[in-house]
Amino acid sequence: MKNTSENTLTGNSTSTETNSKSTIIWDLGAVLIDWNPHHLYRKIFDDEAQMLHFLENVCTFEWNEEQDGGRTIQEANEYLIAKHPEHEEHIRAYYGRWEEMLGGPIEGTVEIFREMKNRGEHKFYALTNWSAELFPIALERYDFLSWFDGIVVSGTEKDRKPNHSFYHTLLNRYKVQPAEALFIDDNLRNIKAAEQLGIESIHFTSPEDLKERLERLGIL
């Protein structure tokens, strides 16, 4: 069952609203692209509990975010191997076999993006927490990334969500007014940061829920 309080579109009523947005800002991972370390580590660990323990205590979300913020993969590996030498092989697999963490596009969301793009009524930008060393792989793999009018990559900027400065990088670079933008992200922390800057936001939970909310806004 959906948590309706968490998934509520800020300032949105149940009736259809007039679309006043000129710009759609997308997150990529877990919204348009199926990226998940579980895809790889289920091949490495036979036991699900052991896999989860490793990802929660060794190759953690917080450790990965430092690479999103600009730390190099070499630096990341050296740091973590020094801390957990007994896990060196599995640590090196995180980036050595990183492409195995990539699933396909999240087709339902890509179709929504395609429909909006074909309408020609909005500008589209991506604001993504992603290592600068790895993002070129995504550009080669996912054709729909070429549909964006601009992409701001955290590892390139050495900044990341939910820092307000990272959002300002996109807003300033592409001359986007917060009140004219709609932001879509699966991470509630990032949604709250955007809302603090006056950017109306949708907390992504599924393509079906996203479509419903965009229809409510008059964007679809």
**Any low-confidence stretches, pLDDT <50, length ≥5?**
1-16
DSSP summary, beta strand count: 7
Helix content: 40-55%
Structural class: alpha/beta
Question: Which characteristics define this entry?
Answer:
7 strands, 11 helices, 220 residues, globular, two-stranded antiparallel ribbon, five-stranded parallel beta sheet, alpha/beta
Could you characterize the architecture of this molecule?
Helices cover 45% and strands 14% of the residues. The protein has 220 residues and is of the alpha/beta class. The chain has a 5-stranded parallel β-sheet with strand order 5-4-1-6-7. Strand 6, helix 10 (188-196) and strand 7 (200-203) form a beta-alpha-beta unit. Helix 4 packs antiparallel against helix 5. The relative contact order is 0.20. Mean pLDDT is 93; it is low at 1-16.
What is the topological layout?
Elements: E1 23-26, E2 33-35, H1 37-44, H2 48-57, H3 61-68, H4 73-83, H5 88-96, E3 102-105, H6 107-119, E4 123-128, H7 135-141, E5 150-153, H8 154-157, H9 164-173, E6 181-185, H10 188-196, E7 200-203, H11 207-217
Parallel strand pairs: 1-4, 1-6, 4-5, 6-7
Antiparallel strand pairs: 2-3
